[in-house]
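Worked example 3 (structure in, sequence out).
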């Protein structure tokens, strides 16, 4: 009975905590509105630092763990930024009833784009043979439409997207056309066809997944295909967010993506494959896991739940993909040689080289403000 009573008290405290969090979120809406009126940005790193430092000082007074308080406050800061960013997108978005067609909008990233554009006031229509999506007008085949939309977004799988872009080039739609593919070289023919036919075309790569809510700290890459107005219009769609907007050419994009996505995906698939083939069960390993193992397992587990066909396309369709995989193969061979030969100094050199690489990386990194 005593234990049950204590649990009821704990539940009551949790309820009061959540009510206070709700009050905090409501204040975040108001603060975000005042920031917009004053022409201030959503993100204020100085203020975030003050909030965390104030919390750590209060933790000492209350006898709480400063790291626990900091972790809790960072979660609340991220939640506040999310609502403020979403409010800004809704309030300052350029949609105003303009019509958008999302080809492939029933897919995960296509649906993210549809919802994102709808939040800005765009009237969004989805074309996808997979069937209708709740909350959006739907057609099975985009080829049956007049294509008089203000914006057309192609969010289909890569091998299909190129065919769609080529077909769109023949129709010469008057509005902005852009894809959201993870690679651009497989779309080269379609993008060039659109450019040749005078279509207002750009290419966009949101560097995040479809579960992303807060774009602060995320990147959106814009490929300039020679139509400056198209790039500017595509950038304008993401300008209300806190994402970092970057421009580059098609070849540089895919060369870098070979490492950013290709190499990282390959490492995680190899890690999971080694575990799956080890004969050791996941629960057994998790029971004796280390900090490093836990972190790697979390990333690899997320990869394992993603779309295997998309990951396969990223590995096989990139014209520059072999560069990162060759580098991975060479690194594994070097590592095995050092370990099997008992080369202590060689092992030290491998780790020191990595340390130097990350030291250079840290110099060029902007503070995230979220630890």
């Amino acid at each position: 009975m005593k234990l049950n009573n204590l649990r009821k008290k704990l539940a009551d405290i949790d309820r009061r905590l959540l009510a206070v969090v709700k009050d905090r979120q409501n204040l975040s809406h108001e603060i975000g509105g005042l920031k917009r009126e004053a022409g201030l940005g959503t993100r204020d790193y100085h203020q975030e630092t003050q909030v965390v430092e104030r919390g750590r000082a209060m933790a000492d007074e209350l006898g709480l763990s400063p790291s626990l308080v900091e972790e809790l406050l960072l979660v609340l800061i991220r939640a506040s930024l999310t609502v403020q960013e979403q409010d800004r997108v809704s309030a300052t978005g350029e949609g105003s009833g303009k019509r958008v067609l999302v080809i492939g909008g029933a897919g995960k990233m296509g649906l993210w784009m549809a919802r994102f554009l709808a939040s800005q006031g765009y009237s969004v229509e989805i074309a996808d043979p997979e069937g209708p999506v709740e909350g959006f007008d739907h057609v099975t085949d985009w080829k049956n439409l007049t294509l008089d939309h203000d914006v057309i977004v192609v969010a289909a799988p890569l091998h299909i997207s190129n065919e769609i872009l080529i077909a769109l080039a023949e129709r010469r739609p008057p509005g902005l056309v852009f894809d959201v593919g993870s690679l651009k070289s497989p779309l080269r023919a379609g993008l060039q066809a659109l450019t040749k036919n005078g279509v207002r075309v750009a290419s966009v790569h949101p560097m995040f997944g479809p579960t992303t809510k807060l774009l602060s700290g995320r990147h959106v890459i814009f490929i300039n295909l020679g139509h400056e107005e198209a790039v500017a219009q595509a950038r304008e769609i993401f300008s209300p967010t806190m994402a970092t907007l970057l421009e580059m050419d098609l070849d540089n994009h895919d060369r870098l993506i070979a490492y950013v996505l290709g190499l990282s995906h390959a490492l995680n698939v190899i890690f999971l494959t080694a575990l799956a083939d080890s004969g050791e069960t996941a629960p057994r390993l998790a029971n004796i896991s280390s900090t490093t193992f836990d972190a790697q397992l979390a990333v690899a587990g997320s990869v394992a739940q993603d779309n295997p066909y998309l990951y396969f396309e990223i590995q096989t369709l990139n014209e520059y993909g072999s560069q990162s995989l060759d580098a991975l193969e060479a690194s594994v061979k070097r590592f095995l040689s050092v370990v099997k030969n008992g080369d202590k100094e060689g092992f030290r050199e491998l780790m020191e080289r990595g340390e130097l690489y990350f030291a250079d990386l840290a110099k060029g990194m902007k503070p995230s403000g979220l630890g």
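Notes: Residues 82 and 213 are 7 Å apart (CA to CA). The mean pLDDT is 92.
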